[in-house]
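User: Design a sequence. Structure:
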């Protein structure tokens, strides 16, 4: 008999959002009339904006004519999208990226899950805690996380973020090879200033570490001077890879398009001690394992950067941020302690009454018919916290707040 990758057996239960979906389905089957409000997984509810739809229609039409039909696209993205990204997300903020430093993909989840293929088998990984589970699980599958003991991976370096430290992660207290950072943060909805991010860049430079910076929620930043990209921090080009996505920026969770930036300066060491470009390794990996994002989707993504596209997506984001404001204010008025939700679509609240995160999940589902995400699903420091998303409709969000108010906790 052949052997499997035993690391998969070390993973606890199922993927967080699959487990929540399972529990909600079970509840819905037992209570078929329950009108459940979903504030759990960060999935958008508003349709794609007209500029995006028009571009996609046009591109679909092109695919039906011999003269304009396209087969395999470039492995790293069409010129029109790569250049729109370079201009719209970077040059406009004073950051110059070379054409071949941008890699278009089908999702930031895939990118942050796949990038670990480039690390050595024994690389030491640091994650903020709580953390988007993909960084942890993808490294656990490769054997870098060690064993899962008492709700923790014994080979991971956790950087706890909590109310006590204002959700600003401490620097690693031992050598690590890779640090994953996500800002605006999933799950806590908090942000870092340039001054708070700079020590990570400096630490990575001094210690020869790599930063994987997940900026999937950058479009939600409204506070002035909060960096939208890690490359706004001096020196970051030498140590950081950045992932961004159209999922939350423009409602592409089901449409699938994202990109990763790998500056030429980012290098790791091979076994013989030679410096090797991560950009070159990723090119090799993508050309081998990926055939690009479909043409109509790339046209749709490029339309996000047109003036109409920008105006339209900003309206959508403002609506989600209005939901976030309503959740924050309503929960605060009800006596909850809440964090985040200002520059992010996530609100992170303290679970009341000494309940565990999963107990609060069950209570909200059973008594309010509301689905949220238990903080402990994001890591040990998430215990005692709970995440709600602002991605539902205004009406449902309002109803959800009224239902929680009736709980009289
Ligand atoms: C979340 O709810 O944390 C996100 O939707 C997950 C994702 O973007 O994959």
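Assistant: Done.
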């Amino acid at each position: 008999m052949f052997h499997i990758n035993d690391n998969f057996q070390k993973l606890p239960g199922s993927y967080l959002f699959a487990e929540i979906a399972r529990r909600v389905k079970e509840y819905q089957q037992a209570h078929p009339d329950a009108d459940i409000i979903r504030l759990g997984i960060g999935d958008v509810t508003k349709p794609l904006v007209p500029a995006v739809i028009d571009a996609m229609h046009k591109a679909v039409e092109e695919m039906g004519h011999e003269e304009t039909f396209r087969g395999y696209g470039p492995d790293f993205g069409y010129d029109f999208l790569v250049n729109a990204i370079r201009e719209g997300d970077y040059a406009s903020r004073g950051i110059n990226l070379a054409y071949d430093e941008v890699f278009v993909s089908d999702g930031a989840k895939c990118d942050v899950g796949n990038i670990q293929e480039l690390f050595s088998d024994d690389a030491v990984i640091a994650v903020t805690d709580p953390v988007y589970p993909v960084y942890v699980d993808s490294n656990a599958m490769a054997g870098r996380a060690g064993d899962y003991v008492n709700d923790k991976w014994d080979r991971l370096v956790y950087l706890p973020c909590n109310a006590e430290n204002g959700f600003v992660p401490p620097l690693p207290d031992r050598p690590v090879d890779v640090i994953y950072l996500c800002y605006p943060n999933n799950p806590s909805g908090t942000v870092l200033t340039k001054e708070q991010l700079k020590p990570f860049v400096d630490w990575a430079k001094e210690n020869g570490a790599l930063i994987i910076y997940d900026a999937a929620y950058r479009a939600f930043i409204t506070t002035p001077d909060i960096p939208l990209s890690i490359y706004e921090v001096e020196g970051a080009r030498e140590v950081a890879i950045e992932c961004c996505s159209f999922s939350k920026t423009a409602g592409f969770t089901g449409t699938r398009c994202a990109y990763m930036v790998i500056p030429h300066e980012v290098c790791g060491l091979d076994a013989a001690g030679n410096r090797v470009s991560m950009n070159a390794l990723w090119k090799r990996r993508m050309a081998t394992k990926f055939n690009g994002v479909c043409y109509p989707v790339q046209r749709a993504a490029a339309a996000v950067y047109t003036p109409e596209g920008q105006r339209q997506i900003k309206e959508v984001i403002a609506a989600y941020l209005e939901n976030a404001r309503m959740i924050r204010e309503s929960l605060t008025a009800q006596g909850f302690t809440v964090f985040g939700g200002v520059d992010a679509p996530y609100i992170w609240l303290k679970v009341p009454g000494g309940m565990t995160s999963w107990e609060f999940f069950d209570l909200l589902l059973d008594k309010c018919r509301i689905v949220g995400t238990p903080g402990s699903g994001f890591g040990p420091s998430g215990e005692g916290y709970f995440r709600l998303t602002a991605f539902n409709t205004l009406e449902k969000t309002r109803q959800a707040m009224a239902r929680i108010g009736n709980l009289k906790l």
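The mean pLDDT is 97. The chain has 13 helices and 17 strands.
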